[in-house]
From TrEMBL:
Encoding gene (name): ybaK
Source domain of life: Bacteria
Coiled-coil ranges from the UniProt annotation: none
Organism of provenance: Saccharopolyspora aridisoli
Name this protein carries in UniProt: Cys-tRNA(Pro)/Cys-tRNA(Cys) deacylase
GO BP annotations listed: translation
EC number(s) on file: 4.2.-.-
UniProt GO MF annotations: aminoacyl-tRNA deacylase activity; lyase activity
Keywords assigned: Lyase, Protein biosynthesis
CDD domains given in the database record: YbaK_deacylase
Domain YbaK/aminoacyl-tRNA synthetase-associated: 36-145
Record family assignment: Belongs to the prolyl-tRNA editing family. YbaK/EbsC subfamily.
InterPro entries given in the database record: Prolyl-tRNA_editing_YbaK/EbsC, YbaK/aa-tRNA-synt-asso_dom_sf, YbaK/aa-tRNA-synth-assoc-dom
Listed Pfam families: tRNA_edit (PF04073)
Length: 158
C-alpha cells in the first residue's frame, strides 16, 4: 500500500480500527464515482456510500448515503437539529475536509464536522466509503465508522 495512505487510512491505523482498503482504476470520465466504485469492487451499490457536505443553518454537516440515493436535505437538517439545509459549495467542502470533491472521505477531515449516516448502513456487516482519493475505498463496520466520527444514524437518503 505504499503511496496510498490518506488522512482517512492514517486515522484508522492510529485508532486500531479493523478495516480493509480497496483500490481500483478510476476513470475520470465516469458519470458517477460512487457507482463506478461499486462496479469496480463487485459490490451492490447500496453497500457503497458517498460522502456529501451540506450547509445546515450556516454550519457544514456531512451526510453519508448510499451511492444509489440522493441526500434528503430536509431529513439531514432535521437529523442535525437544524431548520434548513442546502448542498455546500464545492470549494467550501474541499477546504473544510481537505479532500477533493469525488474523493471526500468522512474520516480524517481537516475540520471535525458533524456527521449523519443513513440508517441503511446498519443492514450490512461492513460498508464501503471513500478513503480520501478517487479510486480508493475503505471497508469497515458502520458502527465503527459512527463511533470514530461521533456520528448519528438517521434516514437521510431519498
Amino acid at each position: 500500500m505504499a503511496g496510498r495512505g490518506t488522512p482517512a487510512t492514517a486515522l484508522l491505523t492510529k485508532k486500531g480500527v479493523t478495516h480493509r482498503v480497496h483500490a481500483y482504476d478510476h476513470d475520470p470520465r465516469a458519470e458517477s464515482f460512487g457507482l463506478e466504485a461499486a462496479e469496480a469492487l463487485g459490490q451492490p451499490p447500496g453497500r457503497v456510500f458517498k460522502t456529501l457536505v451540506a450547509d445546515v443553518d450556516g454550519h457544514l454537516t456531512v451526510g453519508v448515503v448510499p451511492v444509489t440515493g440522493q441526500l434528503d436535505l430536509k431529513a439531514l437538517a432535521a437529523a442535525a437539529s437544524g431548520k434548513k439545509a442546502k448542498m455546500a459549495e464545492v470549494s467550501a467542502a474541499e477546504r473544510a475536509t481537505g479532500y477533493v470533491a469525488g474523493g471526500i472521505s468522512p474520516l480524517g477531515q481537516k475540520k471535525r464536522l458533524p456527521v449523519v449516516i443513513d440508517t441503511s448502513a446498519r443492514a450490512f456487516d461492513t460498508i464501503f466509503c471513500s478513503a480520501g482519493r478517487r479510486g480508493l475505498e475503505i471497508e469497515l463496520p458502520p458502527c465503527e465508522l459512527a463511533n470514530l466520527l461521533g456520528a448519528t444514524f438517521a434516514e437521510i437518503s431519498a
